[in-house]
Amino acid sequence: MNIKPASRFLAAGLVLVFGIALLALAAIEWQMQRHDQARELRDLQSVSGLMSELQQARLAQLALRAHYLASDPAFVDYVTQALLPDPHLGGAIDSASISNLLDERRTGYDSAVVLDPQGRLAARSGMPLRRDGDYRHDPLIAQSLQSRTPASGLWSGNGQLAWVAVEPLLRGAAMQGLLVTSVRIDDAFAQKLAKLSDSEVALLVPAASGATIVASSNIGTLVGGELRDRTANPLEVVEADGRQLAIPAGSDTRLAWATPLDAASGKAALVALPSTRGARSVSTAEPATALRVCLLLLTGLAALVVVLQWKRTYQPLQEMGDIVARAAQGEKFITLRTRGSSGVRRLAGAINGVLRLRER
Fold first, then answer.
1. What is the reported pTM?
2. CA 309, CA 306: separation in Å to the nearest integer?
3. How many CB atoms lie within 10 A of CB 204?
4. Which residue has the higher pLDDT, 148 or 26?
């Protein structure tokens, strides 16, 4: 099939216009994806800072409650007397009475422990955070025993994660023991952190095999399984600012940011993932839509220019060529239609003049 040059120009022009438009659209989508990923990473990195702020507020509240109890002279005197060997108990200390007192006075925290001046367990109220009775090697306990000053921080161990406040029990300048109060970190805290940061979070501590998720928001079953099995190894992250992780989730892979937590004993990690409650943010979606609309308008304008150029220039020139070819073959009494741009019309008029002279 013989395709005329004017038709080839029209086809090539439209293919070029739409080809460039498709490439531009692909570039816009690629750039938007890169922008979204960069924004998500910035948002995920900021989750650890938000957790630090919330943690400081919780620790301050816990330390205030512990200080209030440890500063009560009646409480300190009672504990001091109960820590003395009791002949009626075979020379043992009266742990039961201290535990009962802790039960009565425990408000705003999950567990309370009283240690003797050597850092050994004397009595407790609530579920303990330590299986053994020797707390002396814990950094927070050792710090408070040595400096006789309060200490607070994060405890990790036995599949649990908790905020801890340590208060010395002083009678004058003499150390009588330590009061250790703690609040476990649970799903309620993780959900609050997720809501404030617009992300999904999980807090992990080591387990005998893999890891234990002590608190989480809506991270999903597949992601939770990968975190427990240590497939992504969030507990192995040592960079203080955290590190990007790619967590398998079935046939998909989810972006995540893991940050090590400063726990007084043991390891702990915070894992933040993009929220599953919403897609691309409005601030990103609106510019992307505007770019697509502009690209559509520019593509239509370019296609219109190509069609007009074909209609006003290339098609009339093609007709001129056909008329001249017919005249060269001896055909007479033929006339070229005068249409198109001004230059093309002048050329058509000149050709018609030549044809009239030839016919005389």
1. 0.70
2. 5
3. 26
4. 148
Look at residues 122, 130, 152, 148 and name the one whose alpha carbon lies nearest to residue 139. 152
- Say how many residues make up the chain: 360
Pick the range with the lowest mean pLDDT from 42-46, 48-52, 102-106, 329-333: 329-333
Q: Which of 162, 158, 152, 217 is nearest to 184 (CA)?
A: 162
- Rounded to an integer, the average pLDDT of 339-350 is 79
- State yes or no: pLDDT of 138 exceeds 60: yes
Helix residue ranges, H only, the chain:
5-70, 73-82, 95-105, 139-147, 187-197, 221-228, 282-309, 315-328, 342-359
Question: Worst-scoring range by mean pLDDT, 170-174, 203-207, 356-360?
Answer: 356-360
CA angle 322, 327, 328 (to 5 degrees): 95
As given in the structure block, the two tokens for residue 225 are: 């399984």
**Residues 336, 345 contacting (CB under 8 angstroms):** no
Residue 279 and residue 285: Cα distance in Å, rounded?
Answer: 9
Say what the pLDDT of residue 2 is. 63
**Cβ-proximal residues to 276 (8 Å cutoff; 6+ apart), any chain:** 200, 218, 220
Please give the share of the chain, as a percent, with pLDDT higher than 90.
Answer: 29
Residue 50's φ and ψ, nearest 5 degrees, are -65, -40
**275 touches 256 (CB < 8 A):** no
What integer pLDDT is reported at residue 270 of this predicted model?
A: 92
The residue written with tokens 């900021």 in the block is: 46
Does the structure show a pLDDT above 80 at 24? yes
Q: What does 112-177 look like in DSSP terms, one character per residue?
A: EEEE-TTSBEEEEESS-S-SSSB-TTSHHHHHHHHH-S-EEEEEEETTEEEEEEEEEEEETTEEEE
The DSSP string of 285-316 is HHHHHHHHHHHHHHHHHHHHHHHHHIIIIIHH
Give the model's pLDDT for residue 359.
67
d(C-alpha 270, C-alpha 50), whole Å: 11
Burial class of residue 113, CB neighbours in 10 A (0-12, 13-18, 19+): buried
List the 111-115 sheet strands across, edge first.
121-125, 111-115, 174-184, 160-171, 151-157
